[in-house]
Design goal:
The chain is mainly alpha-helical. The chain contains 17 helices and 5 strands. The chain has a single domain (33-361), classed as Orthogonal Bundle (ADP-ribosylglycohydrolase fold), CATH 1.10.4080.
């Protein structure tokens, strides 16, 4: 996550390496093969958290700096950026947990409740929070609605600081809850972003990412291509509006609003992964860079571990690129592809598994 301010460097997590309870949890975890769809849903949540936690200590570092210090970072380590214990998750996972808890407890997607949970989290003085997120949540705390706060924050931000990756990092739980409803998944993904990141590159970046993850859970051989097809053909049709953005009208649902999907978002992702020169991938916090790089790593790696390690060792916004790549790869391969030595470090392991199972096995409404 691209950070402009850092709050409260207190060590709020214990080190899982010395926690026997974490080892006991793994002894009892579901050993279903990756073909089990529920296992892929769990892999999504655990992959997100592991990518976040592995990347946290080297956030903002250069690839060369990581190589000098660690050769190749493959283990959960403490200290580093934000000076936290090994296995500590950041805002990427913490905000994803807010979304997942809300959907499970409310039985539906409720942006007001999610925004309230975000504000409560913000008021806990997290050690890592992005600039647009902080500004939007401050507006909500001061009385603006979530729609107003997100849009006003976007409109007050200059180009170059108005389309960060702070919403794509957290949106993945919706891909479990609404995996079988592309229209609902698009709409909830867009609105989940609008709370803090209203730029269409962010809102529809969340939609494309979640459609990709949902397709990966179902076992698609080309999940990103399938996601792009859903937005461009199956659910919406192009409308010539004379602007730089490609507008779409709903064809799949009478209640679906008109959509405007930025051309540059399609152009950045259309060639992933086969037409991408890996040497050109960026490690920045710009949403298109994060999506392009994380989707490339998540879709081309042979395991969750390899996807996360490659993403994190790129440096830069390592925790968010790692978390998004981990969510994508986790949806492809399931939990068996995530090393136990990482999972024992994640204090939120139990809740991540419980939430993923609830989101997968229950039916959730969308109004």
């Amino acid at each position: 996550m691209q950070t402009e301010a850092v709050f409260g460097l207190e060590n709020r997590h214990t080190d899982g390496r010395n926690n026997p309870r974490n080892h006991a949890k793994l002894m009892n975890r579901d050993s279903s093969p990756p073909s089990n769809l529920r296992d892929r849903a769990e892999g999504l949540m655990l992959g997100l958290a592991c990518g976040d936690a592995l990347g946290r200590p080297v956030e903002f570092r250069t690839p060369a700096g990581i190589e000098r210090e660690h050769d190749r970072l493959t283990e959960m380590i403490g200290d580093g950026t934000h000076n936290q214990p090994a296995g500590t998750i950041t805002d990427d996972t913490e905000m994803a947990l807010c979304i997942a808890r809300s959907v499970r407890e409310r039985g539906t997607f409720d942006p007001v409740d999610i925004a309230d949970r975000f504000v409560a989290w913000y008021e806990s003085s997290p050690f890592d929070i992005g600039g647009m997120t902080r500004r939007a949540l401050s507006r909500i705390r001061e009385g603006e609605s979530w729609e107003q706060a997100g849009r006003n924050t976007w409109e007050a931000s200059s180009e170059g600081s108005n389309a960060g990756n702070g919403s794509v990092m957290r949106c993945a739980p919706l891909a479990i809850a609404y995996a079988d409803s592309p229209d609902a998944l698009i709409r909830t993904s867009v609105d989940s972003s609008r709370i803090t990141h209203a730029d269409p590159r962010c809102t529809y970046g969340c939609a494309i990412l979640n459609l990709t993850i949902a397709a990966a859970i179902r076992g698609s051989d080309a999940p990103l291509a399938e996601a792009l097809a859903v937005l461009s053909d199956d659910v919406v049709k192009p409308v010539d509006n004379g602007h730089d953005e490609v507008a779409f009208e709903a064809t799949g649902s009478a209640t679906t609003p008109e959509r405007e999907v930025p051309k540059e978002l399609f152009e950045a992702l259309r060639g992933v992964p086969d037409e991408i020169d890996e040497s050109t991938l960026s490690n920045s916090g710009y949403v298109l860079d994060t999506l392009q790089t994380a989707l490339y790593d998540g879709l081309t790696a042979a395991s969750v571990e390899k996807a996360i390690v490659r993403a994190v060792n790129r440096g830069g916004d390592a925790d968010t690129i790692g978390s998004v790549a981990g969510a994508v790869a986790g949806a492809r391969f399931g939990t068996a592809s995530i090393p136990d030595r990482w999972l024992v470090e994640i204090d939120a392991f139990d809740e991540l598994v419980s939430l993923s199972r609830s989101l997968w096995t229950r039916t959730y409404q969308f109004d």
